[in-house]
From TrEMBL, chain A:
<keyword id="KW-0456">Lyase</keyword>
<dbReference type="InterPro" id="IPR027417">
    <property type="entry name" value="P-loop_NTPase"/>
</dbReference>
<keyword id="KW-0547">Nucleotide-binding</keyword>
<feature type="domain" description="ABC transporter">
    <location>
        <begin position="7"/>
        <end position="252"/>
    </location>
</feature>
<dbReference type="InterPro" id="IPR017871">
    <property type="entry name" value="ABC_transporter-like_CS"/>
</dbReference>
<dbReference type="GO" id="GO:0016887">
    <property type="term" value="F:ATP hydrolysis activity"/>
</dbReference>
<dbReference type="InterPro" id="IPR012700">
    <property type="entry name" value="PhnK"/>
</dbReference>
<keyword id="KW-0067">ATP-binding</keyword>
<dbReference type="Pfam" id="PF00005">
    <property type="entry name" value="ABC_tran"/>
</dbReference>
Automatic annotation (TrEMBL), chain B:
<dbReference type="GO" id="GO:0098848">
    <property type="term" value="F:alpha-D-ribose 1-methylphosphonate 5-phosphate C-P-lyase activity"/>
</dbReference>
<dbReference type="Pfam" id="PF06007">
    <property type="entry name" value="PhnJ"/>
</dbReference>
<keyword id="KW-0479">Metal-binding</keyword>
<comment type="function">
    <text>Catalyzes the breakage of the C-P bond in alpha-D-ribose 1-methylphosphonate 5-phosphate (PRPn) forming alpha-D-ribose.</text>
</comment>
<keyword id="KW-0949">S-adenosyl-L-methionine</keyword>
<keyword id="KW-0456">Lyase</keyword>
<dbReference type="GO" id="GO:0051539">
    <property type="term" value="F:4 iron, 4 sulfur cluster binding"/>
</dbReference>
<keyword id="KW-0411">Iron-sulfur</keyword>
<keyword id="KW-0408">Iron</keyword>
Length: 256, 281
């Protein structure tokens, strides 16, 4: 781990009118680290994720990011062009519902190739070869490259969404309930895959889940949210094996 | 009896359209919104082009109107007659004599010259529309020159057909900045847009957009390194005038499946035939 965090979040608050989405959240994320955000429904996990990822404007607080060029930038000061460029090159965003993160009318190859073309790739053969490589990495057979996501199962769509995000080698991936809508056996396979990809690529990730098993399997550190606030955070094994906050204790005992 | 202002539109409307045209010329390839007016013809009959032509026509202009490449189709004839009546403007079928050429599809085969203006009737001005239906999003994409999606479209074409199958409304990049839809021009004519000495104006009536290519603007058709842009090639010469390297239409000659290929540009075809006849004498 390097000595500069990839991401620094300080006092981040997002309100919806008078209602609190998330409040006063602070944390650091280091390169290669996987942080799980857990908590019950409505606790503010998605709000926090979207606000950190600049998909929602914060009401208060700061998000700083270590750019590829080594500078640390307050993301609020990025122009729209810079922000969108960052989001489609150095970041990934995996939605719970693949339809929100895929182009449903574009072939699997086109879905994976889009980011490459967005950053200037202009060689069809190379784009295709890269797409085939990434489809393989997410365990989608090369002969499905010209098929559309509509012909894919839920698990395949989710894997396609992951490939589409990882093709530009982002350093940070945001995931909102990536295993959410899937059968248990399909979930297990996807989790294995995610764990392998994280290990292989060394990317950092923030994974929102209400499933503590997902947090256990994928994350090194976790934050527990309740009513928009972080009530406990620490190394995943420590939090799950020795929860300190009463709410975490309840959460852990009700699941395990 | 109703009397019309010169060229049908009132002067305030013409001024509004000219302002949009000036902005369009200043930012080549950028779609300028304008307050499109009702015209005495249905959308799809080129109301955008007609409004542009009406706003730039003066008493000394000579107007040519083509639909496909022909001066004689219903659409071309009625627009030509419309301007002859409301602007009392001279009309012609000759590409070289015209000062303004309004077109639905083709760019004439006869090279255009400085001072000429080509006015395109455009049905769908937004090249990103099919891929991204949200106008708020396409606007941002243009503003930030985020055009990866255009290549996704071409990628899909190659994946499906083994080559870029798009034959008309083939997207171009203007002055290395704005992606533009030359719709519904056949891609055969795309190279003529590049570095043209003529001024090219595009009017989309239903969609209320105007865009432009000033003379000598760089216009490049999008492609891949390993699937470069190519124009249609015709294996035979024109059956009527013998021209090669021009755009040909397939013409059914009888009800027994007989067909021939002939120039889509009727003025060009007649001109070549006349020159042949003269040379033969
Ligand atoms: N667009 C919105 N407008 C108003 N309130 C919202 C909006 N989105 C979320 N909220 C509120 O913010 C709070 C946090 O919601 P959020 O979606 O972040 O929770 P979550 O932890 O992701 O829940 P879940 O596990 O159900 O996805 C909730 O009280 C919710 O009602
Ligand atoms: Mg949520």
């Amino acid at each position: 781990m390097s000595d500069t965090p990839l991401l620094e979040v300080d006092g981040l608050t997002r309100r919806y009118g008078a209602r609190i989405g998330c409040a006063d959240v602070s944390f650091r994320l280091w390169p290669g680290e996987v942080l799980a955000v857990v908590g019950e429904s409505g606790s503010g996990k998605t709000t926090l994720l979207n606000t950190v990822a600049q998909r929602l404007a914060p009401s208060e607080g700061v998000v700083r990011y270590l750019m590829r060029d080594g500078t640390v930038r307050d993301l609020a000061t990025l122009g729209e062009a810079e922000r969108r460029f960052l989001a489609r090159t150095d970041w990934g965003f995996v939605h719970q519902h693949p339809a929100d993160g895929l182009r449903m009318n574009v072939s699997a190859g086109g879905n994976v190739g889009e980011r490459l073309m967005a950053v200037g790739a202009r060689n069809y053969g190379e784009i295709r070869a890269t797409a085939i490589d990434w489809l393989g990495r997410v365990e989608i057979a090369a002969d499905r490259i010209d098929d559309g996501p509509r012909t894919f199962s839920g698990g395949m769509r989710q894997r396609l969404q992951i490939a589409r995000n990882l093709v530009t080698h982002p350093r940070l991936v945001f995931m909102d309930e990536p295993t959410g809508g899937l059968d248990v056996s399909v979930q297990a396979r996807l989790l294995d895959l995610l764990r392998r990809l994280v290990a292989e690529t060394g990317l950092a990730a923030i994974i929102v889940t209400h499933d503590l098993a997902v947090a256990r399997l994928l994350s090194t550190r976790m934050m527990v949210m309740k009513s928009g606030r972080v009530v406990e955070d620490g190394l995943t094994d420590r939090v799950l094996d020795d929860p300190q906050h009463a709410y975490t204790q309840l959460l852990v005992s009700s699941i395990l | 009896m109703t009397t019309y202002n010169f060229a049908y539109l009132d002067e305030a409307t013409k001024r509004m359209i000219r302002r949009a045209l000036l902005k369009a010329v200043a930012i080549p390839g950028y779609q300028v919104p304008f307050a499109s007016r009702e015209m005495p013809m249905p959308y799809g009959w080129g109301t955008g082009g007609v409004q542009v032509t009406a706003s730039i026509t003066g008493p000394d202009d000579v107007l040519k109107v083509i639909d496909q490449g022909s001066d004689d189709t219903t659409n071309a004839v009625s627009i030509r007659q419309f301007f002859a009546r409301v602007a009392d403007v001279a009309t012609t079928t000759s590409t070289t004599e015209a000062t303004i050429i309004q077109t639905r599809h083709r760019i004439p085969e006869t090279p255009l010259s400085p001072g000429q203006i080509l006015v395109y009737q455009v049905p769908i001005p937004e090249p990103l529309r099919l891929l991204e239906p949200r106008e708020t999003e396409t606007r941002i994409m243009h503003a930030l020159a985020e055009y990866g999606l255009m290549h996704v479209k071409l990628y899909e074409d190659i994946a499906k057909h083994g080559r870029i199958a798009k034959t008309y409304a083939y997207p171009v990049l203007v002055e290395d900045r704005y992606v533009m839809d030359p719709s519904p021009t056949p891609k055969f004519d795309n190279p003529k847009m590049n570095d043209s000495p003529a001024l090219q104006l595009f009017g989309a009536g239903r969609e209320k957009r105007i865009y432009a290519l000033p003379p000598h603007t760089k216009v490049i058709s999008l492609d891949f390194e390993d699937h470069p842009f190519e124009v249609q090639r015709f294996t035979e010469p024109c059956a009527l005038c013998g021209s090669t390297g021009v755009y040909l239409d397939e013409i059914v000659t009888d009800d027994r499946g007989g067909r021939m290929y002939a120039c889509s540009d009727t003025d060009w075809c007649e001109r070549v035939r006349a020159a042949r006849a003269e040379a033969a004498e």
